[in-house]
Amino acid sequence: MQNLTKKTLGIFWQHSKRYPWHVTALVFVVVVFTALQTYVPLLYRDLINLISSENAREKLDVVFGVVVFIFLMNFTKSTLWRISGFVNNYFQPRVMSDLTNTCYRYLQEHSFKFFTSRFVGSLVTRVRRYERAFEQIADQVLFDLGRSFLDTIMILAVLLFQYRVFGLIVFAWCCFFLTFTYFYSKFKLPYDVKRAEADTHTTAQLADSITNNINVKVFTSYSSENRRFADTTHNQFLLRKKAWDLGTLEEVIQGLGTITLEFIIIYLAVLSWYKGILAVGDVALLQ
Q1: Angle, to 10 degrees, between the axis of helix 120-139 and the axis of helix 2-16?
Q2: pLDDT of residue 284
Q3: What is the mean pLDDT of residues 120-146?
Q4: Maximum pairwise Cα distance, the chain
Q5: DSSP states along 151-180
Q6: Considering only CA atoms, which of 70, 88, 91, 92 is closest in space to residue 29?
Q7: How far apart are CA 24 and CA 260, in angstroms?
């Protein structure tokens, strides 16, 4: 399983690096976007502290300067994200098309025996899933996991530099989150594999049953084919429900952890504000 995963990722990368400018542009945009997303809340903190100060009306020019700067940063952030969308709209479909062509050539080079001993529907499903897998992995690497990783690093850097206690709390929570996610994913992986195999088997049986429809009619085997397909879809339902239940349970545990973290952070922030350690803007920033 691990070797197949490495080989698959290697093939994805071989096809992706044919478009170096697109990969570079996407990585650059994600890094800058994430940095701005971390920086803008600091500006809001400064704005709240300014307007909540005693001589705020005397600093009106400074206040409006911060407002304009926030607008410029948000505009830049939004523009970069839209640009990445257009770049990605070319990059991913182009690589997916290349992968489909590679799969086609790879299949055509197999022997006649290979095709006679396998369901056509199963092969078609695997090719389509292989193509879609690149889209899912690319989105996760660039926009989900990649951005989350950069977000976490930058937020921790800000917190540890300016609010060390809160930074340590978030760091401890991140360690728990990553450890839990890693071991839970390993526990859940076999169920995901079985679900995927059941999906492939169902699609393959449906495709081949339709292809051999004339034989079903000639030999009056509709009832047996119907029962066999019903059994297949029921098994698919059970495996799919099990995998989805485990995914929902993971989200429940992570959600409870996030709510608990937020409560601890806000409670300590309000307590620090009461003691005069933090300003109002600091509380808003920490939230």
Answers
A1: 70
A2: 85
A3: 77
A4: 92
A5: HHHHHHHHHHHH-HHHHHHHHHHHHHHHHH
A6: 88
A7: 38
